[in-house]
Amino acid sequence: MKCSIPSFVSLLGLGLLTVGLTATPAQAQSKDDLIKNALSAAPETIAMHATVVAGDGTVLREGSNGYVCLPDDPRPGNSPMCLDSGWLAWADAWVNKKPVALPDQISFAYMLEGDAPTSNTDPWATEATADNEWLDDIGPHLMMLVPDLKLLENFPSDPEYGGPYVMWRGTDFAHLMIPVE
Questions:
Q1: Cα–chain-centroid distance for residue 139?
Q2: Confidence class of residue 77 from pLDDT cuts 50, 70 and 90?
Q3: pLDDT at 8 over 60
Q4: Whole-model pTM?
Q5: d(Cα 36, Cα 16) in Å, to the nearest integer?
Q6: Quick one: 149 exposed, middle or buried, by C-beta within 10 A (0-12, 13-18, 19+)?
Q7: pLDDT digits (tens, 9 = 90+) for 19-74
Q8: Which of 6, 82, 109, 155 sits most deeply, having the most CB atoms within 10 A of its CB?
């Protein structure tokens, strides 16, 4: 079952709060600033027709291409994102720690501003540990979900490899990270 866009975004905020992060008031930014930040996550051809939703679930701009762009979240750094329907369902499962249904086809998300520090091995880690391969600087990238996790077997999980790598290998939340310059 897919979440509506506003309830997913509210759940995302709650999920970030439950993993020990604190929210930054969106009221401090204007609607135009939030939209501009959210759209910076994707190429212009995707961003120009994407829906934009604030962290509190408010639809800031309606779109027509099936992508939902979210402005920077409460984590450190600038990490806006644009998600297609497969990624919205995946993110709902991740936030709510429930089983994830893989998409029927390849699914893409964009984070062209980079991402907040995170673990490369543990989907719910909130800080670096000796064994969770903490990544402090995840640069601009896109992410790919596949309909069968076996399709990721021949990719490395080392982000220093110099190309695409698998994040969260060995979990149902595994996905391909594709760095872009």
A1: 13
A2: confident
A3: no
A4: 0.85
A5: 22
A6: middle
A7: 333 344 444 689 999 999 999 999 999 999 999 999 888 999 999 999 999 999 77
A8: 82
**Encoding tokens for residue 92?**
């709902």
Dmax over CA atoms of the chain, in Å, equals: 45
Q: What's the token pair of residue 128? A: 């670096």
Q: Please state the domain count of the chain.
A: 1
User: Which residue reads 């995170």 in tokens?
Assistant: 118
Token digits of residue 172: 């149902």
- Give the sheet arrangement for strand 175-179, strand by strand: 59-61, 51-53, 68-70, 81-83, 107-111, 141-145, 175-179, 165-167
Region at 20 (left for phi over 0; alpha for psi -120 to 50; beta for the rest)? left
The boundaries of the domain holding residue 38 are 5-179
**Can you tell me which residue has the tokens 């800080």?**
127
